[in-house]
Design a protein that fits this description.
Blueprint (H helix, E strand, L loop, with lengths): L5 H22 L5 H7 L7 H4 L3 H26 L4 H12 L2 H4 L7 H4 L1 H6 L5 H17 L6 H17 L4 H14 L13
Helix pairs in contact: 1-4, 4-5, 4-9, 9-10, 10-11
C-alpha cells in the first residue's frame, strides 16, 4: 500500500482529534489508543505517525473541545445580537438541559474532563489547556450582576450531579434548581402611583 498524501494525513489527524475529543468527553482520557484509532477508521500503527504520544493527543483533543464550546457560545451571541442576557440565558438553559446531560460526547469539556484533569500533574500541557478553557468559559458567563466563576461552578456542578443521578427523579430536579438559580431576572415593573 502506498504512502498517504499530505492532505490525507492531515484529514486523518483531524478525524483522530475529533473522535478523541468526543470519546474522552464520553468515556474519559483512559480510552486506549487502539480504540481511538479504530473509532477513526485507522490502524493502531498509524497513531505515532500523527502524534508523539497519547498525552499530545489529549492536549489537542482538549483544545478542540474547548474551541467547539467557544464557537457554540459565539453562535449563540450572534443569534441574540445586542441581547447578551438573552444569549446567556439560552446558553444556561441548553447547558442545564436533559439533552446536554445525556450527550457527554458532544457536551461541555469542563464537566466531562474535570476528573481526568484533576489527576494530571500541574506541568502537563493538557491541564494548562483545560485551565485556560475553564477560565475563558467563566469569563464568558460573567455579567454585571454575577461572577462568571460562580455561574460556571453552579452549571458544571449541576451537570455532573445530574449525570451521576441520571435515571432518578433527582437528576431533573438538580437541573431545574440550577436553571432557576441562574435565571436572568425579568424587568422590574414600575411602581404603582398608589403605593
Amino acid at each position: 500500500m502506498g504512502r498517504v498524501s499530505q492532505a490525507q494525513a492531515e484529514e486523518n489527524r483531524r478525524r483522530v482529534v475529533e473522535n478523541a475529543s468526543r470519546l474522552f468527553r464520553e468515556q474519559g482520557t483512559h480510552v486506549s489508543v487502539a480504540d481511538l484509532m479504530k473509532a477513526s477508521g485507522l490502524t493502531h500503527g498509524g497513531f505515532y505517525k500523527q502524534f508523539t504520544s497519547k498525552n499530545a493527543l489529549i492536549e489537542e483533543a482538549t483544545a478542540h473541545a474547548f474551541d467547539e464550546l467557544a464557537r457554540h457560545h459565539k453562535d449563540g451571541l450572534e443569534r441574540h445580537t445586542g441581547q447578551r442576557d438573552a444569549a446567556q440565558q439560552a446558553l444556561i438553559d441548553t447547558y442545564l438541559s436533559v439533552e446536554h446531560r445525556d450527550s457527554a460526547a458532544d457536551g461541555c469539556p469542563a464537566a466531562a474532563l474535570a476528573t481526568d484533569m484533576a489527576r494530571e500533574t500541574a506541568d502537563r500541557e493538557a491541564r494548562r489547556v483545560y485551565t485556560e478553557g475553564v477560565r475563558d468559559f467563566a469569563e464568558h458567563l460573567a455579567t454585571d450582576d454575577q461572577d462568571g466563576i460562580t455561574r460556571l461552578c453552579t452549571m458544571l456542578g449541576a451537570l455532573v450531579l445530574a449525570r451521576a443521578t441520571k435515571d432518578s427523579p433527582l437528576s431533573e430536579e438538580i437541573l431545574t434548581a440550577a436553571r432557576a438559580a441562574l435565571a436572568t431576572p425579568g424587568p422590574v415593573p414600575p411602581e404603582s402611583p398608589h403605593s
